[in-house]
């Protein structure tokens, strides 16, 4: 089997898996890989990714001109070209509409909380690229903002995009995003995620080197940093603790089923125990320091 025929077979297999896992419906989604230094092998438009054959693929140059193939390349080709342009290290791109991750994209909720070690070490954060009309040049412009620092992102009101060192690596990142979205949804239904502390996120980032994980940018575990060169993750300072309650909750009252939220101070002494939020604790310490001074 030649290198090209092996890549064609890999795209067919990844398409089959995307469709089998319902990450695409009907003719949704598209897959591409680099073919040498100056060409791309890409899924054609208007075919179901679950039923492709190796001969269906198109070959284009890096400007998107079709060089070979009976069919026209994917309608999202411009988005793929933009990823390869911005990321010389990327060998393959996968786009799909996995339903739970796409639900987050539709709700405008990025998957950027420090929740799972596996996600932090691999993808870091999964931001949402602003809405753009599919298949137009708006979409590559929206993707450009995040692709330099991220191997995976949600596309607002659309789906998800992943990039990798080969087509399976890109596909597995799509699996990770959908799996993470599913776990995040369940955690929210059960009252909300307990976030991993910033110090632990730093430790996990150190493990990237240990495990040979090549990430396009470092994790910035600070929600106030606005920097497109980093993977911004929401992780509160834990003062040595590995898991801390979410300190960044909105001022709106928490849902009644948030079992891990400390109840009001006055209602919380019936077991001879006083529990304080970090905010309350630091206010008490400051007050004590003031009174000593
Ligand atoms: Zn799409």
Could you characterize what this model shows?
With 293 residues, this protein is an alpha+beta fold. The protein has eight helices and twelve strands. The strands form three sheets. Strands 4-3-2-1-5-8-7-6 form an eight-stranded mixed β-sheet, with helices on both faces. A two-stranded antiparallel ribbon has the order 9-12. Strands 10-11 form a two-stranded parallel sheet. The longest helix has 23 residues, at 167-189. It is elongated. 37% of the residues are buried. Zinc ion binds at residues 28, 76, 95, 97, 134, 158-159.
Itemize the secondary structure elements and their pairings.
Elements: H1 3-20, E1 30-35, E2 39-42, E3 58-61, E4 66-68, H2 77-86, E5 92-96, H3 99-107, H4 117-122, E6 128-129, H5 138-147, E7 152-155, E8 159-164, H6 167-189, E9 195-196, H7 198-210, E10 219-220, E11 231-232, E12 243-244, H8 278-292
Parallel strand pairs: 6-7, 10-11
Antiparallel strand pairs: 1-2, 1-5, 2-3, 3-4, 5-8, 7-8, 9-12
Helix pairs in contact: 2-5, 3-6
Bound molecules: zinc ion.
Task: Looking at this protein, list some descriptive labels.
binds zinc ion; 14% strand; alpha+beta; 293 residues; two-stranded antiparallel ribbon; 8 helices
Topology order in helix (H) and strand (E) letters: HEEEEHEHHEHEEHEHEEEH
Q: Decide which structural class fits the backbone.
A: alpha+beta
**Unreliable parts:** 261-272
Counted beta strands:
12
CA radius of gyration: 22 Å
Give the fraction of residues assigned to helices: 25-40%
Measured between the Cα atoms of the first and last residue, the distance is 79 Å
- Please tell me what the overall shape is: elongated
Strands ordered across the widest β-sheet: 4-3-2-1-5-8-7-6
Tell me, rounded to a whole number, the average pLDDT.
Answer: 87
How is the main sheet built?
Answer: 8 strands, mixed
As a percent range, the share of strand residues is 5-15%
The total of helices stands at 8
List the ions, cofactors and other small molecules found in this model. zinc ion
| Assembly category | single chain
